[in-house]
Design goal:
The complex is a heterodimer of chains A (about 130) and B (about 400).
Chain A (H helix, E strand, L loop, with lengths): L4 H12 L16 E8 L4 E12 L2 E12 L2 H14 L4 H5 L3 H8 L6 H21 L1
Antiparallel strand pairs in A: 1-2, 2-3
Helix pairs in contact in A: 1-2, 2-4, 2-5, 4-5
Chain B lengths: L6 E2 L10 H7 L18 H21 L6 E4 L2 H15 L6 E5 L4 H12 L3 E5 L9 H7 L4 E5 L13 H11 L2 E5 L18 E5 L10 E5 L27 H36 L5 E4 L9 E6 L4 H7 L3 E2 L1 E2 L12 H5 L4 H5 L1 E5 L6 H20 L2 H7 L13
Parallel strand pairs in B: 1-11, 3-4, 3-5, 5-6, 6-7
Antiparallel strand pairs in B: 2-8, 7-8, 9-10, 10-13, 12-13
Helix pairs in contact in B: 1-7, 2-7, 3-4, 5-6, 7-11
Classes of the chains: A alpha+beta (about 130), B alpha/beta (about 400).
C-alpha cells in the first residue's frame, strides 16, 4: 500500500479521535442541515457528509460539519480532509472546492483519486440538499 | 497493548524459514561447505551436493508417500503448476483438448489455463459451493470425451476449505483423464498419501511450510506413467522435465522443512487448532461477523472472516500492528473484491470486508490474545465511522437503498 504518511496520519487520527475530527451526525430533518451521501457498498465506499449552516449577509456560512465514511483508508482520510476545509466557508466557497485540493493535501496515489472525487461530490450534494430546504 | 512489534498472522501467504532449516541451508553455500554442482560427476564436490539433493528428495517423497523418483524440483509451486498443466496438455494434445479446473484456483493454475485457451484448448471453470468446496459430481458432469486434464486444488489459499481430491481423482482415472492437484497449502497441514490417492501430478511449495522461497516441486506419477513437455530446456536435468543447475541450498532447505513437517505436523496442528477455536469463538462475539469457508471441512490454520459494514482495507490499516491479508484486493480504482469470495456468491460488500487470518508454527498465545483485543476495538471504531452501520442500527435494509453509484 503506497500511502503517504499524510493519509496514514489522517486516517489514524480520525479513527482514534472521532469527535475531534467531526465524526457523527446531525438530525437530517433540521432545516439548517444539508445532507449528502455518495458511493455504494458494492463499490467499497460510501460517504455521508452533513453541513450545518446559518445565513450571513446574502449568503450562508458553514458553521459545523459531521461525516461518516465506509471505505478504504484513503476514502476515510479524504472525507476527513474535506471536513477540515469546510468550516467557516460560505456555500459559494465550499462549492468551489475541487478534488485536486484533497489529492494535493494528502498526496493521494493516482489509483485513489477516486476517493477525492467522491468527497467533492458529497459536499456538492450536501449543499444542494441544504439549498432546497431554504 | 503489551507488544510493540507487529504480530504475523499471514502464514498462508508465506512462512518464515525455520531456523533449523536455515542453518542446514548454510552448509551448502560457502567454500567450507558443500557448494558443488550436483550435476558434476567428476569430483567429490559434485557427489556430495548430489547426495544432499537426493536426500532432500527422499524427505519430500516421505511426507507425501511417493517414490523419490517421482519428485521434480522446480522454482516453486507456480512453476510446478505451469509445468503440470501446460506440460501435460501440450504433450497429450492429440488425445484431447479439454481441461477442467475451478474458479477458485490460484492464479498459478488459472493463468496457465488461460494461456492454453489461447493455444486452442477449451477450459471449463467449475463453480464451488457456497463454502468454497468443489463438488466431485460437478467434475463428473463436466467431463467430455476430449477431457485430457483435470486440475483442482487441495486446500484453498483464501478460505482453507478442503476438496475431496481422492474422490475427484477416482472420477478422473475412470475417465482416463490426468489429474493435477495444487497442494501448495497442504504440506505440513494435512495428511497426503500418494500411494493411495489416485493423483497423477501434485504441486508443492517450500515457503508455505517453513522452507525458503524460490523452490518447489512437482510430483509426476510413474505408474501409470505421466509424460509431459518440458517448459525449460538446457541440459536435461530432472529426467528432461526441468533443466537448469539444481539450487542445492534451496533444495536442502525444502527437504529439511518437509522432514520437519513430517515429524511435527501433529503437534503443530494441535496447537493451531487451539488458536483457531479460541479465535473463532471470540470473533463470533462481534455482531455481524461471517465466516467464509466451510467450518466442518477446512484446515485450522486459515480463518477468513467478513466484518459487515466495515471495509477490508481500512480494517487492515486499522490493524497496523497485525500482519493479515484482505480478501479485497483494493489496488485498483474499481475496488475489485476477491474473485474467490465472489465465486462463493458472497455479496460484494461482504467480499470487500473480509480478512484472512492465518496461524503457524511460531504463533503464540499472546499473538492471538492481542490480536483479538485490537480487532474488537478497531472493528468497533470503524463501525462508529461507518454510515452503513448507522443505517443498519436505524433499521434500514441496505439492500433497498438506491445508491448513487460512481
Amino acid at each position: 500500500m503506497a500511502y503517504s504518511k499524510k493519509v496514514v496520519d489522517k486516517f489514524e487520527n480520525t479513527l482514534n479521535n472521532p469527535e475531534a475530527f467531526k465524526v457523527g451526525r446531525f438530525d437530517p430533518k433540521e432545516t439548517n442541515v444539508g445532507t449528502g451521501m455518495v458511493g455504494a457498498p458494492a463499490c467499497g465506499d460510501v460517504m455521508k457528509l452533513q453541513i450545518k449552516c446559518e445565513p450571513k449577509g446574502n449568503t450562508h456560512v458553514i458553521k459545523d460539519v459531521k461525516f461518516k465514511t465506509y471505505g478504504c483508508g484513503s476514502a476515510i482520510a479524504s472525507s476527513s480532509e474535506l471536513v477540515e476545509m469546510l468550516i467557516g466557508k460560505t456555500l459559494e466557497e465550499a462549492k468551489a472546492i475541487k478534488n485536486i485540493e484533497i489529492v494535493e493535501a494528502l498526496e493521494l496515489p493516482p489509483i485513489k483519486i477516486h476517493c477525492s472525487v467522491l468527497a467533492e461530490d458529497s459536499i456538492k450534494q450536501a449543499i444542494e440538499d441544504y439549498e432546497t430546504k431554504q | 497493548m503489551s507488544t510493540q512489534s507487529t504480530i504475523y498472522l499471514d502464514y498462508a501467504s508465506t512462512t518464515p524459514v525455520d531456523p533449523r532449516v536455515a542453518s542446514k541451508m548454510m552448509e551448502f553455500l560457502t567454500p567450507d561447505g558443500e557448494f558443488g554442482n550436483p550435476a558434476s560427476r567428476s569430483h567429490r564436490f559434485g557427489w556430495k551436493a548430489d547426495e544432499a539433493v537426493e536426500e532432500a528428495r527422499s524427505h519430500v517423497a516421505n511426507l507425501v508417500n511417493c517414490d523419490p523418483r517421482e519428485i521434480v524440483w522446480t522454482s516453486g509451486a507456480t512453476e510446478a503448476d505451469n509445468l503440470a498443466i501446460k506440460g501435460v496438455a501440450r504433450f497429450y494434445k492429440s488425445k484431447g483438448n479439454h481441461i477442467i479446473t475451478s474458479k477458485i484456483e490460484h492464479k498459478a493454475v488459472l493463468d496457465p489455463c488461460r494461456q492454453l485457451e489461447r493455444e486452442g484448448f477449451e477450459v471449463t471453470y467449475l463453480d464451488p459451493d457456497q463454502n468454497g468446496v468443489i463438488n466431485p459430481s460437478d467434475v463428473k458432469a463436466a467431463i467430455k470425451d476430449t477431457t485430457v486434464l483435470i486440475s483442482i486444488m487441495h486446500i484453498n489459499n483464501e478460505l482453507g476449505s478442503v476438496n475431496d481430491i481422492s474422490k475427484i481423482g477416482e472420477i478422473a482415472r475412470k475417465n482416463g483423464s490426468f489429474f493435477h492437484v495444487d497442494a501448495a497449502q497442504s504440506t505440513g497441514k494435512t495428511e497426503i498419501d500418494l500411494e493411495k490417492m489416485p493423483i497423477d501430478l501434485m504441486s508443492f511449495s517450500a515457503h508455505k511450510t517453513y522452507g525458503p522461497k524460490g523452490i518447489g516441486a512437482l510430483y509426476v506419477r510413474r505408474k501409470p506413467r505421466v509424460r509431459l513437455e518440458a517448459l525449460i530446456h538446457g541440459g536435461g536435468h530432472e529426467r528432461g522435465m526441468r533443466s537448469g543447475t539444481l539450487a542445492t541450498h534451496q533444495i536442502v532447505g525444502m527437504g529439511e522443512a518437509f522432514r520437519l513437517a513430517n515429524e511435527e505436523m501433529k503437534q503443530d496442528n494441535v496447537k493451531i487448532s487451539k488458536f483457531h477455536e479460541k479465535f473463532l469463538n471470540k470473533v463470533k462475539e462481534i455482531d455481524h461477523v461471517y465466516l467464509n469457508g466451510d467450518i466442518e471441512n477446512k484446515v485450522p490454520n486459515i480463518l477468513n472472516v467478513s466484518f459487515n459494514f466495515v471495509e477490508g482495507e481500512s480494517l487492515i490499516m486499522g490493524l497496523k500492528d497485525i500482519a493479515v491479508s484482505s480478501g479485497s484486493a483494493c489496488t485498483s480504482a474499481s475496488l475489485e473484491p476477491s474473485y474467490v469470495l465472489r465465486a462463493l456468491g458472497r455479496k460484494d460488500e461482504l467480499a470487500h470486508s473480509s480478512i484472512r487470518f492465518s496461524f503457524g508454527r511460531f504463533t503464540n498465545d499472546d499473538d492471538v490474545e492481542n490480536t483479538l483485543d485490537i480487532l474488537g476495538n478497531v472493528v468497533h471504531r470503524l463501525r462508529e465511522l461507518s454510515p452503513l452501520w448507522e443505517m443498519h442500527l436505524d433499521g434500514i435494509d441496505l439492500d433497498t437503498v438506491e445508491w448513487k453509484m460512481h
